[in-house]
Automatic annotation (TrEMBL), chain B:
Name of the protein this chain belongs to: Transketolase
InterPro entries: PDH/Transketolase (IPR051157), THDP-binding (IPR029061), Transketo_C/PFOR_II (IPR009014), Transketolase-like_Pyr-bd (IPR005475), Transketolase_C (IPR033248)
Domain Transketolase-like pyrimidine-binding: 5-170
Top-level taxon in the UniProt lineage: Bacteria
Primary gene name: tklB
Amino acid sequence: MTVTERNSVDSEKIRLLEDKARQLRVAIVKTLHKSQSGHTGGSLSAIDMVTALYFHTMRHKPDEPAWAGRDRFVLCKGHAAPALYVALAEAGYFPKEDLMTLRRLGSHLQGHPDSKVTPGVEVCTGSLGQGLSMANGMALGLRLDGSASRVYALLGDGELQEGQVWEAAMAAGHYKLDNLCALIDVNRLQIDGEVAKVMNVEPVTDKFRAFGWNVIDVDGHSMAAIVAALEQAATVKGQPTAIVARTVKGKGVSFFENKASYHGVAPSDEELPKALECLGEQCNL
Amino acid sequence: MSTMIATRDAYGQTLGELGEENRDIVVLDADLSGSTKTGVFAKKFPERFFNMGIAEANMVGTAAGLAAAGKIPFVSTFAVFASGRAWEQIRQSVAYPKANVKIVATHGGVTVGEDGGSHQSVEDIAIMRAIPNMTVIVPADGPETAKAIRAAATMKGPVYIRLGRNKVPTVFADDAPFAVGKGAELAGGSDLTFVTTGLMTAQALVAAERLKAEGVSARVVHLATIKPLDGEILLRAARETGAIVTAEEHSVVGGLGGAVAEFLGEHCPVPLKRVGIYDRFGTSGKAEELLKYFSLMPEDLAEAAREILARK
């Protein structure tokens, strides 16, 4: 099924989501510049998906983070914590000013997501490969309770090199977890360079299909495609869905794009105004 | 000490009972449900039992997710795989977020027997004890296992419980009190104290009887909970008897002996001798043969007692 055939979300809503994603990119750049530590490239590649989840797809109550009826989000690629934090702040889980404390001693915004200290963070992630297993467990638990809540897990393509991901993929297929949706941020780069050269994980879609998943291949920066894929995933019965999103590492800031060197580097003082300009934002710091 | 029961059998039976009492309890296993005895629960509550296949890392992560969804997961496999293969998953997905996951590892120690060194877990207590937020329990016998499992189900947070494969003598009455973090004085004594865990407690009780015949008064303190350590009972033993012999079916590195030595070294240094496995891997053999081979018999404990008394 091609996802573009579905048109339940009007173009105005898509435009608003696209603008939200742009604002969140600005927040990521400012946050990382302030902390001078953290992961820029993978936060920017994932933010369109995170935006769609938190501002369109997921049922959640920012003023009641433990609301039983909420959908769950697991950021498996935990180093993209800034993408999650800016979305949570924008949604109202905590004040936006808190973003400026990222990675500092005493902050509730740890370098990688910590469910003990940050409202809205469901589980601790950061060691790659473990998140999908936890998402499986949540999906199993919710199904046992007869809950209508869904679980979303966001993984990186480099992360797929961890064997545990495939143990989890096998289990999700085996247990027919149709309340689970994994989004794979295929930005093609990892710390040491191109994923294809370090340890090739392609073909990603075939691998998930082979484990019994419904797989949707999308442009990970097309808000309309992401939203449509998420809607389709919710209609599939008897199998989990993987949305394989083709993305660009560092997306939105031209001089960050497709550069492995920006995996774990924050924008410098010189780069900040240029980066904000790329994002259509005035630099008034 | 007339009855003999394997701690894993007590586990299976208790899980079956708990399943009736608490609908939130779920159980995961990695293709060993017959050996770990989680099969008892699987038969009664198939919808709450998840066989995760031979994939321990994913099993532990899944348990963490179930805990995040409000369930009380009991996760079982052999001790060597639970503590080894899934160590980092236990650290990151379970202990770091203080997830309410209970890891009940069976076939701990060398008494797993003929399978040999690959399957004999001699370092699991040390590696679990090193993880923040983790509670580590090694019951002495069947009745204590039942209570430890119930206590784990009731308390919030991660717990590692180490059980054995073989039948072991019962040292506790069914109505003996049990509390996580509390030791039990099973024999009074004034010349030295055996501080023991797991099946070594039964061995120490036999050793204490033998020493009594020689005119030596040995106290026996059983520590089911190795973390958090019962400092109170240890301090009293060190002050009142002035000499300590620890005993465990585990490496002397980092386990009970290590924990007691760390604590008493800081708070009340007295002569101390560790009985355990001296930095070696296990080997094939029958359980009883291996206890002899690794010097874990009552006579070995008595000998350690004589040695420590000479150092007092």
